[in-house]
Amino acid sequence: MITRFFLLTALLLTFAFGANQSVADERVLPAAVLQKMGYRPFNSFPHYRGQRIVRSEPPNNLKWPVQFVDAARTIAQNYVNYQQYGLALPYYHKGCDLRSPAKSFVKAPVTGVLEGGYYSYSDNPDGSEVKHWIPWNGKPHDDLYFELAKTTTDGYRFELHHVDSMNLPKETIQALNKGNVVVQEGTVVGSVIPWPSDYDHIHYNILRQDGLVINPEAYTVSPPDHIAPKIHGVYGVRADGSVIELVNGGTVSGPLQYAVVATTETRDNSVYVQTPPFVGIQFNTRELFAWDFRKALIGPDNKWPDIRQVFVSKLRTPSGKVLSTTGQYGKGLFLMRLNVPPARGPFVIAVSDTAGNTTKFSGVMQ
Ligand SMILES: [Zn+2]
């Protein structure tokens, strides 16, 4: 019965994705379904069983592992991007979608041990995920969700998703068959699989060995970004659930339980929008609250940032309009929640991108 239930869930998810005419960016299914498909929960660092040293910072000034399509199509979704596909729970994108032509080369971003396998995720309500893995066994099959990873000696893992496992260079196949082979930065390790919907891309993650999700843009020479995130509206929610719209430079009669910032981020020439990695509120009296994901996906308490706390899924504005947080393939709008400190007087709400561009919105809390 349980098996049937999960298979039914998988079918429903498949239909839901189909209805959107969009293949999910990552495969997310119930753990029991993945188990049946042959996946096992994944230990991220099977090659490093000995002592590991974590540097305080990952290597920086890295090169992207692909050639971008053009100036308008570089990084489609950033690593914070809110994702929701069909009936699956919302999750953080966790990596950058690097737009690159189908069948074009993918290079190793760092020197490290090469590893390959088929991956999937099961999801948790807080937006975290458990990775599931079928290791390389020398007999590849056609699957959109194949990963080549490089693990450095000091414990950072660089993951390249959506590599075409049926068209790997013979050197990559030899290294994977042998296992534990160090491959140099800049080596061509594979190619971009043609994507059945939306856009061809490599999904690029950087993880620290303890699972901390790193912002790849913060450690890579990024395409130009001189455009600050946009604030489309700021709303205040009171303890009784009533909603007010805040006006830039205006006065607010407090207290507010939380503020909702409707926002998007983009970069020079880009046709895509992303989730800003920084949003915060600060009073003149210094009380502040911020989600700061510019370097890593971590909350102000140094814990996993529960996605239900960071984003408001729906908001009815005072004029009766319903806004939703949506994010798929570089489109969407993000309603980001800020806990408002119990303070009065002038305050500033700031939204920033990884490059340091900032948009501000000010007010006075009475
Ligand atoms: Zn992706």
Could you explain the architecture of this structure?
The protein is mainly beta. The chain folds into 2 domains: 200 residues, Distorted Sandwich (Glucose Permease (Domain IIA)), CATH 2.70.70.10; 136 residues. The protein has 4 helices and 25 strands. The structure holds zinc ion (ZN).
Secondary structure layout:
Layout: H1 2-19, H2 31-36, E1 40-41, E2 82-83, E3 91-92, E4 96-99, E5 105-107, E6 112-123, E7 129-135, E8 146-151, E9 156-161, H3 170-178, E10 182-183, E11 188-191, E12 201-208, E13 213-214, E14 230-237, E15 243-246, E16 250-252, E17 258-264, E18 278-283, E19 288-292, H4 307-310, E20 314-316, E21 322-324, E22 326-328, E23 331-339, E24 345-352, E25 358-365
Parallel strand pairs: 16-25
Antiparallel strand pairs: 1-7, 2-3, 4-12, 5-11, 6-7, 6-8, 6-10, 8-9, 9-12, 12-13, 14-15, 14-17, 17-23, 18-19, 18-24, 20-21, 22-23, 24-25
Bound molecules: zinc ion.
Distance between the termini: 58 Å
The arrangement of helices and strands along the chain is: HHEEEEEEEEEHEEEEEEEEEEHEEEEEE
Apparent shape: elongated
Helical segment tally?
A: 4
Helical coverage, percent range = 10-25%
On the 0 to 100 scale, the average pLDDT is: 90
Structurally, how many domains make up the residues? 2
Question: Under the CATH scheme, which architecture of the largest domain would be assigned?
Answer: Distorted Sandwich
- Find the count of extended strands (DSSP E, 2+ residues): 25
